[in-house]
Amino acid sequence: MQLIKCPWCGPREETEFHYGGQAHVEYPAEPAALSDEEWARYLFFRDNPKGRFAERWSHSHGCRRWFNAIRDTATYRFEAVYRPDEPQPVNS
Amino acid sequence: MSTQYLDATPPHTPGADLPEHPDFLWRNPEPKKSYEIVIVGGGGHGLATAHYLARNHGITDVAVLEKGWLAGGNMARNTTLIRSNYLWDESAAIYEHSLKLWETLDQDLGYPILFSQRGVLNLAHTLQDVRDSVRRVEANRLNGIDAEFVGPEDVKKLCPIVNISDDIRYPVLGATYQPRGGIAKHDYVAWGFARRASDAGIDLIQNCEVQGFETDGDRVTAVRTSQGTIGAGQVLLAAAGHTSTLTDQLGIKLPLQSHPLQALVSELLEPVHPTVVMSNAVHVYVSQAHKGELVMGAGVDAYNGYGQRGAFHIIERQMAAAVELFPVFARAHLLRTWGGIVDTTPDASPIVGRVGYENLFVNCGWGTGGFKVTPGIGWCLAQTLAKQEPHDLVEPFGIERFVSGVLVDEHGAAGVAH
Ligand SMILES: Cc1cc2nc3c(=O)[nH]c(=O)nc-3n(C[C@H](O)[C@H](O)[C@H](O)COP(=O)(O)OP(=O)(O)OC[C@H]3O[C@@H](n4cnc5c(N)ncnc54)[C@H](O)[C@@H]3O)c2cc1C
Ligand SMILES: [Zn+2]
């Protein structure tokens, strides 16, 4: 179990959080124009990297707000957390 | 309800029937320059495919490349539950094909695999569980699969240590029962396949990590490995949780998410648990291994991960559920926990077939439940590679289904458990 830093509440137990998968997946700008193939990509296909991954978390047992995180999927270490309105931190 | 199975005798003294295995099970050759077929991943699926390529199709110019030690991935980490009582026709067909192969695998491999058909109970804890379970039993019967719905008293007869009192958090309202389900000895299964494939002339190459590919037009021509470049007529990716790290190299995206999945064992105990009990609702399932450990599994950790370990709170939840269902477990000591990495798909069914290139096949997305299909999928993949078109039983599991919408939605029947 690890501490995850909610951007609003600070570090809390992992059990307070809910995982939301890949971050920055944009809803299609023109849904009606999408082919079946493009819909499939939007609905079902996500990145699955071994390493840095931008993903969504919700502090479901705390402030109940969603935020983004950069986490390493090989070490599970959180490298950054940021609010949904903040840009993705640049890889340093 | 029929009671023909309810008096099944429990397994005899644990450990008594564990055979010695030979000193040498397979050769350790240097890789050749090229092979007709290169299989990436020396887990159960890769090894079974190699065996059936030789046995059913006479194809032996084959290499199985394994980055670590043979069958040290999920094959070495799983809890070995075998059953075929899936809801949808497509799933039922391939898992039942596999179960039939398990029933004669000892003889086929000339090697003991300790397949123990001690029966599998899937508990129902709510009225909705009961309805879903009865539906699945009926679907199974239509597919010729042994299944019945049993009430709490019969659950108790089949597994006397289950707590069927009605004042617990998730009371047992009944269970599906598949008498032909059970467990096998996972290492022996892998070794049995490896030995036969190696004897037939197939090269099993350990410590050989595939790191990239060479391509020419619509064909993959070679794999780049930690032991050099190896030419390939056809390539099969059977790398379970790590499949998308390979397809990423080719710019092929698959709808896969890799998650840690944990399990644990207790110290050795006298025989107390004669069958297999699973509960999707409380996220625990239990069997007693041949030697006597209680083997328990849980659901996946929620986040993506490749670390081959998971979070402790998952185990804590699982143990809380186990102790409630099996009060005697409160006195057992935990011996060891571990994790594997399983690849999950949006419809909880595997992805099998050609992707991206003419001669590139994937076998992935078996998630938390692919051990039980080991002989079955090996059989089907061998034919798929030999004929270069999908075996009927794997055809429904092509990647196209995510575009066509013909999903095989096994969430209800497969869930997080197995
Ligand atoms: C804790 C746990 C419990 C489970 N319980 C059950 C169960 O009770 N019943 C059930 O049916 N299923 C169960 N499963 C699922 C089952 O183990 C898997 O679905 C199945 O083993 C997957 O197929 P495989 O055996 O080929 O995978 P693996 O054994 O994981 O084989 C893949 C191999 O590919 C190798 N590899 C990966 N990348 C590369 C590369 N780049 N180059 C070379 N080699 C590579 C890996 O090292 C690995 O050995 C469980 C899994 C886990 C983790
Ligand atoms: Zn918060």
UniProtKB/TrEMBL annotation, chain A:
Coiled coil: none annotated. It holds the Pfam family SoxD. InterPro entries: SoxD, SoxD_sf. It comes from the Bacteria. GO terms for biological process: tetrahydrofolate metabolic process. GO terms for molecular function: sarcosine oxidase activity. This is Sarcosine oxidase subunit delta family protein.
TrEMBL record, chain B:
It is found in: Cytoplasm. Keywords: Cytoplasm, FAD, Flavoprotein, FMN, Nucleotide-binding, Oxidoreductase. SUPFAM superfamilies: FAD-linked reductases, C-terminal domain, FAD/NAD(P)-binding domain. PROSITE patterns: RHODANESE_3. Its cofactor is FAD; FMN. GO terms for molecular function: nucleotide binding; sarcosine oxidase activity. One of its GO terms (biological process) is tetrahydrofolate metabolic process. Residues 1-22 are annotated as: Disordered. Residues 14-81 form the Rhodanese domain. One of its GO terms (cellular component) is cytoplasm. It catalyses: sarcosine + O2 + H2O = formaldehyde + glycine + H2O2; sarcosine + (6S)-5,6,7,8-tetrahydrofolate + O2 = (6R)-5,10-methylene-5,6,7,8-tetrahydrofolate + glycine + H2O2. Its EC number is 1.5.3.24. InterPro entries: FAD-dep_OxRdtase, FAD/NAD-bd_sf, Rhodanese-like_dom, SoxB. It holds the Pfam family DAO. It comes from the Bacteria. Belongs to the SoxB family. This is Sarcosine oxidase subunit beta.
